[in-house]
Write a structure and sequence with these properties.
elongated; about 220 residues; four-stranded antiparallel sheet; Immunoglobulin-like; 7 strands; three-stranded mixed sheet; alpha+beta
């Protein structure tokens, strides 16, 4: 009987301690004031804004990132530690004061470049420097100007011109001529080119120029 009373009293005592600790923690949480933390993040020279900086409270699992012009804004609690991180820049931490009269805090944060110095490594494609020099001397370097002159020769340009498709201007001109011929066909028959003096003059000029000569 005494043992059961002792166990019950111990259980009631521990339960009271547990609920009292929860009440104290709840009061602590309620006493912390919510603060709107905002600001602008700049580079080390304070000349350019840094966009995409990760801003978060590690213990609370909440955060944000800086915008295009380096501006950010997020709610925090008194006493929070806010971390600012970005690849290539040194990580920084801002501790929110525990006693703040205002409900807003504004920051202008500058982040420095995180430089990592590596030892110099010399990469050689040959076992010794002497073999490398001999390989360089033995190289057969082609003059780039000779390639350009071959590509710009009249024969090569003519071959490219014959294989190239019609340009936009030529396609448009052909379309306009086809449309004009279709409109003309609506109102009468086509004119006979054999009786057209302008066509004969063009034909004679083409003969004089040698356009009708057979190309071998």
């Amino acid at each position: 009987m005494k043992n059961s009373l002792l166990i019950s009293a111990t259980f009631i005592f521990l339960t009271g301690i547990f609920f009292s600790s929860l009440e104290v923690k709840a009061q602590d949480v309620q006493e912390k004031k919510v603060i709107q933390l905002s600001g602008i993040i700049l580079n080390s020279d304070s000349t350019d804004a840094v966009a995409g900086v990760n801003i978060y409270v590690p213990t609370k699992g909440r955060g944000t990132s800086s915008g295009r012009f380096g501006y950010f804004s997020m709610p925090v609690l008194e006493g929070d530690s806010v971390v600012f991180s970005f690849i290539g820049l040194k990580k920084q931490t801002f501790k929110v004061p525990t006693k703040v009269e205002s409900d807003r805090i504004s920051l202008i944060l500058t982040m420095e470049v995180d430089e990592i110095a590596l030892a110099e490594i010399e990469v050689m494609p040959y076992p010794t420097e002497e073999e490398f020099k001999q390989a360089v001397i033995a190289l057969n370097v082609v003059d780039p100007m000779s390639i350009s002159r071959a590509n710009m020769s009249p024969e090569m340009l003519l071959r490219w011109a014959e294989s190239m498709p019609a340009s936009g201007n030529e396609n448009f001109r052909y379309f306009q001529q086809t449309q004009a011929q279709q409109n003309q066909d609506l109102y009468g028959p086509r004119t006979l080119r054999l009786l057209d003096p302008f066509a004969w003059s063009q034909f004679i000029r083409s003969i004089k120029r040698g356009d009708l000569k057979r190309k071998d």
